[in-house]
Amino acid sequence: EVQLQASGGGVVQPGGSLRLSCAGSGFTFGSYDITWIRQAPGKGPEWVSTINSGSGTTFYSDSVKGRFTISRVNARKTVFLQMNSLKPEDTAVYYCNAERMGSNYWGQGTLVTVSS
């Protein structure tokens, strides 16, 4: 059974940090590009960051560049999103997605709330 699970969300004050995890099972995790996408209340989905399989090349949206870091540990079938200097506008449900040559898997989201 294919599973992709995002975790690590919570409530944090502005300027704080959180680390999200995306854990996969039931497929060759290391062969998939992993993407984080978020959806703020009342807004559409927003791409946040992607890490490629193989080379591990990373990409970031302008809104998070310099504050967020994506990384992967294929042996643990996990991708991390380290989020620093969090802002209220980072409040959203964060989802992870695994994609490879037409195969596409989504995990349940994890809620991040940035509030004082």
Secondary-structure blueprint:
Layout: E1 3-7, E2 10-12, E3 18-25, E4 33-39, E5 45-51, E6 58-60, E7 68-73, E8 78-83, E9 92-100, E10 103-106, E11 110-114
Parallel strand pairs: 2-11
Antiparallel strand pairs: 1-3, 3-8, 4-5, 4-9, 5-6, 7-8, 9-10, 9-11
Please give a handful of descriptors for the protein shown.
single chain; 116 residues; mainly beta; seven-stranded mixed beta sheet; four-stranded antiparallel beta sheet; globular
Any overview of this molecule?
This protein is mostly beta strands and 116 residues long. The chain contains no helices and eleven strands. The chain has strands at residues 3-7, 10-12, 18-25, 33-39, 45-51, 58-60, 68-73, 78-83, 92-100, 103-106, 110-114. The strands form two sheets. Strands 2, 4, 5, 6, 9, 10 and 11 form a seven-stranded mixed beta sheet that branches. A hairpin with a 6-residue loop joins strand 5 and strand 6 (58-60). It starts with a strand and ends with a strand. The mean pLDDT is 96.
Rounded to the nearest angstrom, the distance between the terminal CA atoms is 40 Å
SSE ordering: EEEEEEEEEEE
- Estimated share of beta-strand residues: over 45%
Mean pLDDT reading: 96
The percentage helix is: under 10%
Q: Which residue ranges are poorly predicted, with pLDDT under 50 across at least 5 consecutive positions?
A: none
Rg (CA only): 13 Å
What form results from the Cα inertia axes?
globular
Number of strands: 11
Counting helices, strands and paired strands, the structural category is: mainly beta
Tell me the number of helical segments per DSSP (H or I, 4 or more residues long): 0
Q: Biggest sheet, in brief?
A: 7 strands, mixed
